[in-house]
Amino acid sequence: MDAGSETMNGTELALQLLPARYLDLRCRERLRGAEELRFRIGQAPMMLLHGSEIPFADDLISENDLLRILEKATGASLHTAAPALSRGYISFHGLRIGVCGSAVIQNGQLSGFRSYTSLAVRIPRECRGVCDGVLRQLNADGIENLLIISSPGGGKTTALREIVRALSSRGRRIGLIDERCEIAACDAGRPQFALGAHCDVLSGLDKRAGSMMLLRGMNPEIIAMDEISQAEDLEAVREIIGCGVGLIATAHAAELEDLKKRPLYRLLLDEQVFSRLLIIRMEQGERQYDLRRLGNENRGTAGGDERVPLDRLSSDHDKKAGAAPP
Fold this sequence. Notes:
It is built from 11 helices and 14 strands. By secondary structure, the protein is an alpha/beta fold. It has 2 domains: 10-122, Beta-Lactamase (2-Layer Sandwich); 132-321, P-loop containing nucleotide triphosphate hydrolases (Rossmann fold, 3-Layer(aba) Sandwich). Strands 9-8-10-11-7-12-13-14 form an 8-stranded mixed beta sheet, sandwiched between helices.
């Protein structure tokens, strides 16, 4: 068993945030396996399950309900969460809570919200074994720099977490930059998800600063990070690759062609940062994992990728543990 193998129960954490009227046994049973909970003023509360929104109660959400959820998530200190709210979300013990409402702009930047209209509570979940086929292929060829892509909510973070856990459990030294505090979901310094015995976690730090700290102080063999999305992240990636350290990362894109349409990702492809690409797709309510080897030519243009045969893992794991959330 992994060191730190006691893992968080994301559904139970989410239930702590809900109004009392949703805590009866019937609601608890309905919410089992939910990937997200969504609350919109004037609408019934919804849960996201296998890519579809389904109401889990019949009454309508009020702004007071939203405020109570946010108060619980911030320890009745919503004003102290202003820096996080300026990014459009807050974290609660590894749960990411997305926020929409009437924005307050100061000096051209979002500083908070005047009122709230909707919340999205993303529920992380451990799905052991979901990437076993991917890992067999990677291990057969030696660990190579890997980029994991899917549409939003497609299971990138879950796959990243499972790959980190498996590699760390096999003795690989992993440095994990958990910028949004949802991969490891550290609470009082202890990861709430099993990450193996050889993983060092930096939480709440941006990728550029985090990569420099890990490279200088922790001697990682591989650095893992979630959601490459801005120029500063590209600088972090270059530092890691320049030091000869392996890299596992995620990005928002449904297919390779989507990567090629965005300037930041075209640079990553053209610079040949990643030699492997894992595409996660939702097909008929189940996730499929498609591992490819990226070619050496025309990476930022059409072509240049070679498909690697890989068993389609759907899912027995999705069915047993619930579909892998982000």
